[in-house]
Amino acid sequence: MGNFEVLERDGLARLGRFDTPHGPIETPALLPVVHPDPERQPVPPLEMRRRLGVRAVITSSYIIWRTPPLRAVAEAEGVHGLLRFDGPVMTDSGAFQQHAYGSVEVGPEEIIAFQGRIGSDIATVLDIFTEPETPHDAAAEALASTLERARHARSARDGLLAVPVQGGAHADLRARSAASASALGDVLAVGGVVPLMEQYRFPELVREIAAARPFLGSGSAVHLFGTGHPMTFALAALFGVDLFDSSAYHKFARRGSLLFPEGTVPIDDLRDAVCHCFLCGEMPLTEVARRPAEERERRIAFHNLLASVEEVGRVRRAIREGTLWELAERRATAHPAMRAGLEEARRHPEVFWPTEPESRRAFRETGPDSRERPVVVRFRARVREYAARRAGPWRPLSRIPLRPEYLARVPASDRSGVEIAWETPTPLGPVPLELTELYPIGPYLGIEEFSNPPRHRPPSAIAEDAARELADNFDLARDWADDWTRRQVRSLLDWQYGPEVAAGMAPSLVGERSRRTGRLRTLEDRAGTVLFHVGTDSVARPNYRGAERLVGHLEATRHRLVVADDAVPFVRGGRSLFARFVVHADPSLVPGMSALLVDRSDALLGVGRLVLAPHEMAQMSRGVAARVTAHAGSPETAEADETARPPADP
Predict the structure, then answer these.
(1) Active-site positions?
(2) Does 186 score more than 90 pLDDT?
(3) Which of 47, 93, 330, 374 could hold 352 in an S-S bridge, CB 3.0 to 4.6 Å?
(4) What is the pTM of this model?
(5) Residue 451 lies in a domain
(6) What pLDDT is stored for residue 650 in this prediction?
(7) Rounded Cα–Cα distance for residues 188 and 218 (Å)
(8) CA 172 – CA 140 distance, rounded (Å)
(9) Would you say 22 and 89 are in contact if contact means Cβ atoms under 8 Å apart?
(10) Are residues 308 and 159 in the same domain?
């Protein structure tokens, strides 16, 4: 279901977009909870949009339905007319009121029909709220009723439908609910978790989300009911939550409490100007604290909403930059319960692995726990597999750069053979020396970088020392450095494609290094044709000529995306491959990897870099699955063809 489109991502977290009758919603997005009675709403929705850039809101269709004056306006002018808001409006159905008060006067079919009559952009099923403590049998019975209601709602509604994901604290029920909801809903709303957030039971919250997450369809937006405090947004986004609804901005304002990503502050405790946002430029918080009760509540609510909107912006930026784990780790310091929640998230790395990117631009440590991020756990496992393929015993070395002149620091007794298995200590454990430029080791920035002063001498001084050491102690033969380069070329191909491909291709390849950094930059054939480019993440990515060689060495379907017939001419011409045109995807691929794009007969069309994980491609009807990075008409391919062409007759 759904029309969700992924634009950019960082693991499960997505910068995305989906259409509604009143315009698109770009995610992650904050949907402030708006009371339909303007007398009880401290910040008018129109002011939210005009001053804070809020694009969508959520309100209660049940409150509208049970309040005759509001109902009359909504049925005459629509919910948008009632709220005086022209953006997308999502409506809740009264499930929380049903849970809190024991019952509601409206039935599930009637409330769905009512949401349609008042023009809700996203209508919500009246589900049965399940407490975390609900026994398994009772939770299963409630879930069965919720899913039956969802099926009736789907058949009765043509527009966007939010289907709640329930199941209490029971992993099997959460998984069943998520899978069933994904077949019915355009928005998948993880519910029954408000008590956990209100009681700061974040490890339990994480377990419930982790149980549901692998079964939530990628083609729908994911909504976490009740995640209103800005300190929770980064943690929720790690699990791919796209929509946050917030009534906290107003609830906390009633108590006189200010919301910040770092925690909650009673406004009466303030003695200094702690904020300099545009609202505080109009009136400092210390002055707000002394205003009459109604004005004070309104201004605090507005300030809380601003803090929430700004934090969603930070989450969006972190997704774009690939630093969301770092942001979540910083936010977890706001409260021990948040730290416990993030620690629980690290206990479920398998939830993140299918969408964890191959590499990111940086890896910055915020504390020792950074070394247990899912991508690190995956890297260690791959290192163990790689090391098992290498002849031992492994010989330890101090950590050294990989520029050829620094190979002088390798003991002379070890230079007799290139097959010696060296490993070097790193913050993430011992790693084979030839792999230490790979993510997450290569770009790793941690405390060691700053606690060892010699490492911070100017590069020129380090180079002078190396040259002096080279001249005084060793006679580093150039052919030995070439042997090292050949070894590294073979190792990178082994890491990326397996030992069989490395054995078949490496002997005919030459590695070229940057003169400035000494790092591998290209892999070429002996005629000088570039076949692979090696990025700053040390991953060897094929161009079209390299892909032509790879096809013959890789088993059928490996590292491939099979393109539907209708899209073949477009992909061959360099256009992006859209999800709906992927016939098959190698399940071992992850976002950011380079894949061979082939037609049904396995003829090469080009090379693409994945935006979506393979399982997502089968679930999404919109969006780019892979961006083409090389194809038959690429400039470097044409240049290679020109070079290979025999000279014309005189």
Answers:
(1) 92
(2) yes
(3) 374
(4) 0.90
(5) yes
(6) 33
(7) 10
(8) 10
(9) yes
(10) yes
